[in-house]
Amino acid sequence: MIILVTGAGGPTGQAVSGYFRKLGHTVIGVDKQDVDLLDRAAVQDLAARIDREHGRVDGVVHLVGGWRGSGSFAETSLDDWNLLHDLLIRTLQHVSLAFEPLLRRSENGRFVIVSAKAAQSPSAGGAAYAAAKAAAEAWTLSLADALAGTGGAATILVVKALVNDAMRADRPEARFPGFTDVNDLAAAIGGLYDRPAAQINGTRLDLTS
């Protein structure tokens, strides 16, 4: 399979890329130093290159993220919203619009984003983050509607937060309750290929339960 991982340079991207590479799949990992995902033309060029080389894409795992919060609702910074809009929504728009045609050519294509419980249960100080995540979910569900009836599926994986080995090493006393390990997330993404597209398309899969 041909798997594109955006945000591949971080611990989550490394875990997901490593998971698919160990299974023998071709992983195309991009991070901000490779492609500016806020530049739509650059993303379209990436899609065109993958189209020329492979003719399709079997998975797009969009892992570009970020978090900002405030002490209270009234203290919310709209500068934080602008940042989160770009990171969580605009990059998603560019990637999904460019790669939807390539996903359609796959017999078993998967588009995945990672969302947060906060999108459904926002806190007072997390308005900007929760709103951006909710918008990203809505966009992904629209993509799912576009993929309905094809071999592809767009799916939202929901976590409280993610944890990796470096975080545990930095805070050995911490328990990280309810957090999802990045390797478990990678396995959950891989498991999407074991289920029919129609069963998972347009769904929110909660990894915290």
Automatic annotation (TrEMBL):
Q: Which InterPro entries match?
A: NAD(P)-bd_dom_sf, Sc_DH/Rdtase_CS, SDR_DHRS6-like, SDR_fam
Tell me the domain of life: Bacteria
Whether Oxidoreductase counts among this entry's keywords is yes
Which residues are the signal sequence here? none
Among the Pfam families in the record, one is: adh_short
UniProt KW Oxidoreductase keyword: yes
This protein's UniProt keywords: Oxidoreductase
What is stated as this protein's family in its record? Belongs to the short-chain dehydrogenases/reductases (SDR) family.
Q: What PANTHER family does this protein's entry cite?
A: DIHYDROANTICAPSIN 7-DEHYDROGENASE (PTHR43477)
The protein's name is SDR family oxidoreductase
Q: Which organism is it from?
A: Nonomuraea antimicrobica
Lineage, top ranks: Bacteria, Bacillati, Actinomycetota, Actinomycetes, Streptosporangiales
